[in-house]
Design brief:
The complex is a heterodimer of chains A (114) and B (112). Chain A is mainly beta. Helix content of chain A is 0%, strand content 48%. With 112 residues, chain B is mainly β. The chains are: A mainly beta (114), B mainly beta (112). At the A-B interface, strand 4, strand 5 and strand 10 of A face strand 4, strand 5, strand 9 and strand 10 of B.
């Protein structure tokens, strides 16, 4: 079955440590996205990538970094510069942007930083 | 700046009732509008996508409408079931299609 795999499901880190969240897709989608979800709020876009070796900042990119070395993979690093990293992180993909292609989501990674 | 608002924030209905969820957006220059379902602790599942040139889309018991001029969309759920209990999110893709803005969602509870 095609889909998006995010790992791990739960992640715990100490304040000041960088942490990398994994996102892999086998849908052959060109575009991939990272969103952050906080309780009672909508999803907010962190970074997106339209093609391999290219990515753009979303609305809340500060304190995060990404890479897109392979079409299938779009890992997100939460750095120590992110002031409030505890959140639910969702990875998504779509074909040729989201004009006529729905976003497909993984099951998320819940990050807790103490 | 595009803003998406969903009303109500939460809704509780008895099983079998027909219901409408509302979504409004501030900028009518959209590429498409999507409705998603999210179960607790899970990712989002796409329910319906309406392209900017379309007025509505239907899938089973679900019907979504789009009125760009008024900046509104509705999701109609017919004959609700307990399995429909979830959070429903509305999202609009702006020009270029790569930035999708989400509403905060409507949490639906269908009582058996």
């Amino acid at each position: 079955d095609g889909g998006i795999t995010q790992s791990p499901k739960y992640l715990f880190r100490k304040e000041g440590q960088n942490v990398t969240l994994s996102c892999e897709q086998n849908l052959n989608h060109d575009a991939m996205y990272w969103y952050r979800q906080d309780p009672g709020q909508g999803l907010r876009l962190i970074y997106y990538s339209q093609i391999v070796n290219d990515f753009q900042k979303g609305d809340i990119a500060e304190g995060y970094s990404v890479s897109r070395e392979k079409k299938e993979s779009f890992p997100l690093t939460v750095t120590s510069a992110q002031k409030n990293p505890t959140a639910f992180y969702l990875c998504a993909s779509s074909s040729q942007g989201s004009y006529n292609s729905p976003l497909h989501f993984g099951n998320g990674t819940r990050l807790t930083v103490t | 700046k595009q803003e998406v608002t969903q009303i109500p924030a939460a809704l509780s209905v008895p099983e079998g009732e027909n219901l409408v969820l509302n979504c409004s957006f501030t900028d009518s220059a959209i590429y498409n509008l999507q409705w998603f379902r999210q179960d607790p602790g899970k990712g989002l599942t796409s329910l319906l996508l309406i392209q900017s040139s379309q007025r509505e889309q239907t899938s089973g018991r679900l019907n979504a409408s789009l009125d760009k001029s008024s900046g509104r969309s509705t999701l109609y759920i017919a004959a609700s079931q307990p399995g429909d209990s979830a959070t429903y999110l509305c999202a609009v893709a702006n020009t270029g299609g790569f930035k999708t803005i989400f509403g905060a969602g409507t949490r639906l509870f269908v009582k058996a």
